[in-house]
């Protein structure tokens, strides 16, 4: 009976501490065993396996988008179930000396009705230990509900702030965002000023992503509104752009590019560590020579001159090695595509099209509106 009491009390303590670390504590928790991590890894792996069976990208992304909100409900349900079981074990132990010793199923029922403060009265505590437990559990039920109600707005506010920055990047870097398109749309003198401001904005945006996703990892699983956009794709485009500016392109935004690169790189490295995803030892080359030549040709037409000396190319390769392995690790874990340096074919931006536009042909007319990025 002592073991039952210990096991029940330990179960309640573990759940309460997990809830405190997940909801209240605003910092990363490094511990070899975490119930919340087990719940997410145990549900995310099969969810991804099912998503791989979808042939259409849109259907697959829609299915994956359900996981973020649903995972919160699953986590809350697991916490509530374990608290009910823990108190059920304590009720069962405290009533062992009672002449009308109830079954464990009855104790679970008492625990559930007390936890959710139903007050049905068909099963009631018979001794003082049970009554004390009932008072504690009913108070805990109110606190648990308040915890959930306070947690959800924080999650959705963090998600909303992240998505605003991603949507703003749509007209600046394309859909999906790429380094080639971001530089192309910011050529010329006025474009250089706008490019520096964009990099400055993303220095702050990546810091917000790091802070919110480390404090509340559940936000990482929330997908963006469009299938060709994600927070990982946005960080990739910004990192690629900064790497080019720091190695191969003469530009007035070099100092800001250095600061933004440092912050974005910090974000992807810390998040890969958060999910326990080690960078692979080797990965496919995202910028082989034919792609680099297309990139150089496209940027030359936009007014940028890419240096191709050995020192510049070596620096570009070094900068890429600082973040691409971590992007690849996050991409595989979160099942998010990493965009290329330059698109193989031109794609209409998300802001230029809509369901009505595609039907009526207006998307075509809008897509012909010129980009004002030159002097």
Secondary structure layout:
Elements: H1 2-24, H2 35-51, H3 57-65, H4 67-94, H5 104-115, H6 128-173, H7 179-184, H8 188-215, H9 231-247, H10 254-274, H11 289-301, H12 310-334, H13 355-360, H14 362-367
Helix pairs in contact: 1-4, 2-4, 4-5, 4-6, 6-8, 8-9, 8-10, 9-10, 9-12, 10-12
Note down, in words, how this protein is organized.
The protein has helices spanning 2-24, 35-51, 57-65, 67-94, 104-115, 128-173, 179-184, 188-215, 231-247, 254-274, 289-301, 310-334, 355-360, 362-367. The chain folds into two domains: 2-150, Helix Hairpins; 174-367, no CATH class. The chain has 375 residues and is mainly alpha-helical. α2 (35-51) crosses α4 (67-94) and α8 runs parallel beside α10 (254-274). It is 69% helix and 0% strand. It has 14 helices and no strands. Residues 359-370 have low confidence and may be disordered. The protein is elongated.
């Amino acid at each position: 009976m002592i073991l039952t009491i210990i096991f029940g009390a330990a179960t309640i303590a573990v759940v309460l501490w997990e809830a405190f670390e997940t909801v209240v504590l605003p910092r990363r928790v490094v511990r070899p065993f975490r119930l919340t991590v087990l719940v997410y890894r145990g549900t995310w792996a099969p969810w991804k396996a099912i998503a791989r069976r979808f042939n259409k990208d849109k259907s697959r992304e829609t299915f994956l988008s359900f996981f973020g909100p649903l995972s919160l409900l699953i986590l809350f349900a697991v916490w509530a179930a374990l608290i009910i079981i823990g108190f059920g074990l304590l009720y069962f132990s405290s009533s062992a000396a009672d002449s009308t010793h109830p079954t464990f199923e009855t104790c679970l029922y008492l625990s559930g009705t007390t936890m959710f403060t139903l007050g049905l009265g068909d099963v009631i505590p018979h001794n003082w230990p049970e009554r004390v437990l009932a008072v504690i559990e009913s108070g805990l039920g109110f606190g648990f509900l308040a915890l959930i109600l306070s947690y959800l707005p924080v999650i959705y506010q963090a998600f909303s702030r992240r998505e605003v920055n991603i949507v703003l990047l749509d007209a600046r870097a394309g859909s999906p965002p790429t380094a080639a398109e971001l530089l192309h749309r910011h050529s010329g003198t006025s474009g250089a000023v706008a490019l520096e401001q964009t990099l400055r904005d993303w220095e702050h945006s990546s810091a917000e992503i790091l802070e919110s996703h480390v404090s509340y990892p559940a936000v990482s699983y929330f997908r963006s509104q469009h299938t060709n956009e994600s927070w990982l794709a946005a960080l990739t485009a910004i990192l690629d752009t900064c790497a080019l500016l720091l190695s191969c392109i003469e530009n007035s935004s070099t100092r800001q590019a250095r600061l933004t690169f440092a912050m974005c790189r910090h974000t992807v490295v810390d998040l890969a560590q958060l999910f326990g995803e080690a960078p692979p030892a080797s990965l496919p080359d995202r910028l082989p020579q034919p792609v680099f030549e297309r990139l150089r040709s496209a940027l030359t037409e936009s007014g940028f001159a890419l240096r191709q000396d050995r020192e510049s190319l070596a620096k570009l390769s070094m900068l890429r090695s600082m973040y691409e392995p971590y992007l690849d690790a996050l991409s595989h874990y979160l099942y998010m595509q990493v965009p290329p340096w330059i698109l193989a074919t031109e794609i209409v931006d998300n802001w230029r099209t809509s369901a009505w536009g595609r039907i009526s042909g207006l998307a075509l007319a809008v897509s012909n509106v010129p980009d004002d990025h030159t002097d």
